[in-house]
Amino acid sequence: MADLLEVLEHGPVRLEPFEDRHLEPLRAACARDQEIWQIYVVNLGGDGFDAAIAMFRASQEWVNFAVIDTATGQLVGITNYIRPTLFGVVEIGGTYIDPSVRGGGFNRAMKKLLIENAFAKGFVKIEFRVDIRNARSKAAVTKLGAVREGTIRQDMVTWTGHRRDTALFGLLRDEWAG
Question: Where is 51: in which H helix or E strand?
Fold first, then answer.
């Protein structure tokens, strides 16, 4: 599989390989929604920010992108490819976007860039793993055409100590409508 990390841009979204210059703008964006971190595995909205970013960046299994709003040029989030496999499967996750760009198609445009890039690089399946408590994310991946394949029970422990159940969604290349 070809390298997934490159600048991707279309419409309102620009995805850039995550670099040191993105750290403080991301910290500021993540601080704008303190409540959301209760259903995330890690806490990017507070004292856990530095440790979570260090984990993302140190992992050989994560491909990190800064999310830029092309209308303002501002960093508004982070997203990742996770665990790309030799069998043509990659997860899209670890995503946070600022409340200012939620709704209105921004998330769909961002996911479309990631999905189409992965499929163009030879991947045949995209996975999304969502905390079962996260109704907004479950609805968003369903709108993309992903199919719920099941629930992985108590597979993660979040930063709050909650043992989470994860809804697994899959999107095959021949199911992608764009």
Answer: helix 49-58
